[in-house]
Amino acid sequence: MSERTILLVDDEPRLLETCKEALEGPGRAVLTACDGAEALATLARGGVDLVISDLKMPRLSGMELLRRIAEQGLDADVIVLTGYGTVQNAVECLKLGAVDYLLKPFKIAELCAAAGNALRERGLRQEKGKVDQLVAMLNLQSVLSGQNDQRGMVKEFLNQVRAAFEPDGIALFFSRESLGQRRDIALGPFFRAQPQTRGWFAALADRLLRQGRPKLLSAEALGRAMAGVTVDPPASAMGAPVAGGGQATGSVVVLRGAGKPAYTGDDLHLLAIFASHASLCFESQRSCAMLKEVNREILFSLASAVEAKDTYTRGHSERVGAYGVKLGRALSLSGREIELLRMAGELHDIGKIGVPDNILNKPASLTAEETRVMRQHPGIGRTILSKVSALEGVLPIVTHHHERVNGRGYPDGLAGEEIPFLARALCIVDSYEAMISNRAYHAARTPAEAASLLARGAGSQWDAAMVEVWLAVVAGEPG
Ligand SMILES: [Fe+2]
Questions:
Q1: pLDDT tens profile 385-416
Q2: Distance 111 CA to ligand 1 centre (A)
Q3: How far is the CA of 407 from the centre of ligand 1 (A)?
Q4: Same structural domain, 313 and 268
Q5: Ligand 1: distance of its center to the CA of 362 in Å?
Q6: Residues above pLDDT 70, as percent of the chain
Q7: pLDDT band for position 423 (50/70/90)?
Q8: Is 427 inside any structural domain?
Q9: Nearest to 404 by CA among 463, 453, 450, 349
Q10: 164 and 273: one domain?
Q11: Of the candidates 124, 158, 187, which is a domain's last residue?
């Protein structure tokens, strides 16, 4: 798992030193700051996962620090430390977004447990966030590719942006050259009530388009930049260029008022992906086939990105796809079925994008809870792939590639012929490839050892007739 960074903030140097020593360890770096102002400066450089801060400090208090973190959309979790008798303060901090609090004096073990919990929760949230982002992106793709004209596409694009970013204001400003007969679209109270706000963002949108890059604006930056424009600027905003060519060139802008969480760097990244995918869709509107190819390419590149999380499985899926083709041919399947096996082989573990790295790369056996998380990957894969209609045929294969013919597999415990035929086939080549490769939890076996393992599990784990066909395939291969 990637290294986690904790920032300790307290004006008592001795306490800082003791806590730093206790929290430091493998995969964990600890930084310190003596007050809120120094902490903010460190946070601005990025890379901090967890802030553990005292409340009472000179210059900038813990409470004010929390407020600034929220205002500036800084992506760090916060635990507050507070003196006895100030529970009310702690409650206030939780309202401001702190994830936990500790009453002083606390035991070092309590501090370590609270930090461990917060980092674990953060890891799970980040993994889930990745899946949500991916699903939102694929939704955008499939909805846009279902539109026949540009008007419908623009409408759906804005609908999807609204669903993903929950803004208080949303706008699509077209470039002055492409405006022609059409008008900018600007919706929500910020734009409706304040024409000057609309004008300011239209100018910003034009700049983003010229510079060709997205931008995130915090409450502080908006307050400064819009001082002469309005007394009531939004609390957070971001925009990204949409370069759809000709009629569909412009920038999308979303705003949030106070009372909602500020947009973060992650949100900006997703908006930029939305905008560039929308650009692609606008551009290739006339070519449906091309769009489908774009979707597929995105998924295949995602599948290899998932493999890159685990150094041992690099290239695994591609090899499973190639083995699937060989087994399909030996089973005399149709060209369509063989192609499905190849695609399913390449995509079967895409759901591992939702499994934390520390579980994927664990060199020892998994705990019951880790096994439960790991076993979600076929279902997550199904959710992701179901967003692309062209991949409908691979869904049952990906969903059931860990079933066993004796009914003891997952996710549904299907037995024998209840397991889709092609899933039974994929299961054999997936297992075989895993056996002959180095894994975090075992060294590579020889093809002969793998063949005898398959033969032993034929009829219980794998379909016996198919194992026989596959063993004949590998026996015929040169050394
Ligand atoms: Fe798998």
A1: 887 777 889 999 999 999 999 999 999 999 99
A2: 37
A3: 17
A4: no
A5: 15
A6: 91
A7: very high
A8: yes
A9: 463
A10: yes
A11: 124
- Domain annotation covers residue 139: no
Q: How confident is the model at residue 244 (pLDDT cuts 50, 70, 90)?
A: low
Containing structural domain, residue 34: 4-124
Residues within 5 Å of ion ligand 1 by Cβ?
Answer: 349
Ligand 1 centroid to 306 CA: how many Å? 12
Q: What is the pLDDT of residues 314-339, one digit of tens each?
A: 788 889 999 999 999 999 999 889 99
Rounded to the nearest integer, the mean pLDDT of the chain is 86
Count of structural domains within the chain: 3
345 and 455 fall within a common domain: yes
pLDDT for 229 beyond 90: no
Alpha carbon of 298 to ligand 1 centroid (Å): 20
Strand 100-104 relative to strand 77-83: parallel, antiparallel, unpaired?
A: parallel
pLDDT confidence of residue 1: 45
Domain C-terminal end among 124, 155, 185? 124
- The answer on 98 and 207 residing in a single domain is no
From ligand 1's centre to the CA of 329, what distance in Å? 23
